[in-house]
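Sequence, please.
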């Protein structure tokens, strides 16, 4: 799998690009939990099965797996989702920054949150069909990434505005570990107005975003050599070990010990079956 930052004009709105091919002989299908990062993403697949979403552990009895299609927008989530991973075929995608929904997809991140949406429903079937055709004509991952970058640049609104200063200030505050009320003060907006603008830009409310950031801090610490969960709980801002374990399981579907046993190569992708 090739992963790299985008070209400079896209960096305000695209955090990371990836592309890769898994041949049938190396496919190892299984259940995977994808953990929340606070970011939206695009994902496109061909030459194999499309994305298959699986019922979460707390889903109602009888819930069925389903596919949103070969080209999707994954909205920001406050918790994990489950999918079929390790299948064969090509996969190309992008992790998006706050504000990308308006600049690149011309919609609100709030309208895409907590679900996967067919990319054609957002950008139009003709535009997505053309993108898929161009991707399928490529023979290596880097060429696929250049095609995706070209498409995203063409999607970028001519008059591009960055994040609203209030949202940028709130995000910067939350990323320092500050409580939500401090982020509200940094934004200069009322709590109600900040929530609305924050959701429009990121897909999540400030409190949800803060929970995800705290999880990501804990995951980074768990990746360190000889991690100590008790110390991680305190350092990441949890009240105690029990609070850490409850929050971790609620957001990831596994316990910290389960995560350590799984030893995921990518911390936000945990094989559970």
């Amino acid at each position: 799998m090739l992963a790299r930052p985008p070209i400079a004009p896209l960096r305000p709105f695209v955090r990371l690009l990836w592309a890769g091919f898994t041949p049938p002989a190396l496919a190892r299908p299984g259940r995977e939990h994808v953990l929340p990062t606070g970011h939206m993403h695009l994902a496109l697949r061909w030459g194999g099965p499309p994305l298959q979403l699986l019922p979460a552990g707390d889903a109602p009895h009888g819930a069925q797996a389903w596919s949103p299609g070969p080209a999707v927008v994954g909205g920001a989530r406050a918790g994990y989702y489950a999918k079929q991973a390790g299948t064969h075929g090509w996969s190309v995608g992008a992790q998006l920054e706050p504000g990308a929904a308006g600049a690149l997809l011309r919609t609100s991140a709030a309208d895409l949150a907590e679900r996967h949406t067919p990319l054609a429903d957002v950008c139009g079937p003709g535009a997505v069909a053309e993108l898929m055709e161009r991707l399928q004509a490529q023979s290596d991952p880097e060429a696929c990434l250049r095609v995706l970058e070209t498409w995203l640049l063409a999607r970028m609104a001519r008059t591009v505005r960055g994040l609203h200063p209030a949202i940028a200030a709130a995000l910067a505050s939350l990323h320092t570990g500050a409580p939500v009320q401090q982020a509200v003060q940094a934004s200069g907006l009322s709590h109600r107005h900040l929530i609305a603008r924050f959701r429009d830009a990121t897909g999540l409310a400030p409190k949800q975003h803060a929970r995800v950031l705290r999880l990501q801090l804990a995951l980074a610490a768990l990746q360190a050599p000889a991690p100590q969960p008790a110390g991680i709980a305190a350092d990441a801002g949890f009240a105690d070990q029990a609070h850490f374990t409850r929050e971790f399981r609620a957001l990831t579907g596994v316990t910290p010990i389960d995560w350590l046993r799984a030893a995921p190569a990518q911390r936000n992708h945990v094989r559970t079956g």
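The first helix runs from residue 100 to 105.
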